[in-house]
Amino acid sequence: MNRPEVLNALNSEAHFELADAFDRFAADESLHVATLTGAGERAFCVGSDLKERAAVGHDQMPPTGFAGLTERFDLHKPLIALVNGDAIGGGMEVVLACDLALAVDQARFGLPEPKVGLAASGGLHRLARQVPLKVGLEVALTGQLIDAPTAQRFGLINRVVPRSRFEEATEQLLRELEACAPLALRATKQMIFSGLDHAGLAEAYQGHYPEYERMLLSEDAREGNQAFVEKRPPAWKGR
User: Phi and psi at residue 70, in whole multiples of 5°?
Assistant: First the structure.
């Protein structure tokens, strides 16, 4: 997100450009993991461009939602939020929509919409599913900003590092994912999220998960077994 002059607040053009980028990422079989970050050091994203909203009267965004992401429910490849600064309002909703989140220790998080007469909309549904209910209610109802260590303690983000180690920590996380078979990552993500859509555990076990079936029949599944037997690192092909 490259609008540092407005703390990476997103206007309609940015929403549609991000939607196109995620469309291309989803469709390209050679791409397995994506990262999303903000330009500069002050902010990851502080939400909507309020000047544009005031001029137009409402937000203009694609069917896939804020940043082309928050209403995208069929992306099975892992997506990492690299939170280089404040993630506020829609910016925090983007973090909630990502699968993993790494943040600098100066980053702040919050949904301050009630302070300007609004509610955080769809982001509230993700928040209620990712943190204990009382924690989510406090974040959403008070509109107060929380620091990165608190966000990590609440379970909103995975890792917090000093800015001086941000790049190193990013590379480490990516190496951990790259050590895993790409189709196994997709199957894992689909099973977790699609499984949560079922009313009970038994129903989740009986669910249909195409990415899991694809993984079982893949070359990588055979390669993983063979590499274990031969005591060598696997050479994943993503097929």
Answer: -65, -20
